[in-house]
TrEMBL record:
It comes from Zeimonas arvi. SUPFAM superfamilies: Actin-like ATPase domain. Keywords: Acyltransferase, Cytoplasm, Iron, Metal-binding, Transferase, tRNA processing. This is tRNA N6-adenosine threonylcarbamoyltransferase. It is found in: Cytoplasm. Its main location: cytoplasm. It catalyses: L-threonylcarbamoyladenylate + adenosine(37) in tRNA = N(6)-L-threonylcarbamoyladenosine(37) in tRNA + AMP + H(+). Belongs to the KAE1 / TsaD family. GO terms for biological process: tRNA threonylcarbamoyladenosine modification.
Amino acid sequence: MIVLGIETSCDETGVALHCSERGLLAQALHSQIAMHQRYGGVVPELASRDHIRRVLPLARQVLDEAGLGLSDLNAVAYTAGPGLAGALLVGAGVGASLAWALGVPAIGVHHLEGHLLSPLLAVDPPAFPFVALLVSGGHTQLMDVQGVGRYELLGDTLDDAAGEAFDKSAKLLGLGYPGGPAIAKLAESGRPGRYELPRPMLRSGDLDFSFSGLKTAVLTLVRRELDEGAGSGNPETRDPRQVRADIAAEVQAAITDVLVAKSVKALQHAGRETLVVAGGVSANRRLRERLAAEQERRRFRVHFPELALCSDNGAMIAFAGALRLAALKERGELAGLKPPEGFRVRPRWPLDELDAA
Ligand code: ATP
Ligand code: MG
Ligand code: FE
């Protein structure tokens, strides 16, 4: 079965082709980062308009790359939520129309299910059940995962997401958007521990997170150490570049320390031996290294998506759609699936409201 996947929930247009026998056949991505950069964040209306421009040429590109035509498609999967309403409508509209025109089924995929299942695209995929740490621009969640669509929420952020904490701290440090990669890069020349930032909720006794206090602490630190007048009268005037690098290193350490500690705790709580990490922040090298070190000490196995699949992409949507369609096929329900006569998006859509596949 060949599935075309379309992702347009935010600021990346992603399109990919997945084949149930041969795996990922082709993928293409257009990032709008450069377009939104000067506004310091994503401008929803600009995002929707750009998706309209990109999605069909990208679909053409993946078909050409795979040496396939539209008539080879067996289904279309598109991101139905959560995300920006206008941006979602583009992918959903194009995906459902294409499926209708081709007379094949369309399936609306949950964006976070796409992230969560993306490590299963690896050569050595994890097996169910496992605990998943979902760390992206809009979410920070721990889930107990028993199968496709069988997700139990173990912990959530009470305010900002981990990616958001990276992004907001980066802004305070005068770094560009998106902040995660910028902080990670600057942190390479910094020393964690040179400044002290809080590890929010580290000992809260539950599996929840909170990152908004960290942002305030970073603001205070930046004002004290970097803003005009800082260091005046100090005989040992410090190099502001080093100060910024040291703050970046501590921000990264603070966020990743909490993520690692709570993930370990979630594994113990759920009695699982496999941890799957997904979402944009799963690209973070310090997070990967810290979890790899923990798995040695505590005897669990950690899995990440390949780097190119951490942030938003079409491959994870094609794959999640393919897994759900495969489950329908197994139950003999695939043949009853009609081409869509409409479509619906859900800008807000809790992951644990999904039905099992
Ligand atoms: P959601 O999936 O919750 O709807 P999103 O799609 O915007 O949100 P993703 O694309 O999964 O989020 O991830 C983007 C986030 O990942 C941004 O906040 C970005 O700063 C962060 N990020 C990307 N690379 C890194 C990195 N190397 N280190 C830390 N954070 C990173
Ligand atoms: Mg993005
Ligand atoms: Fe995402």
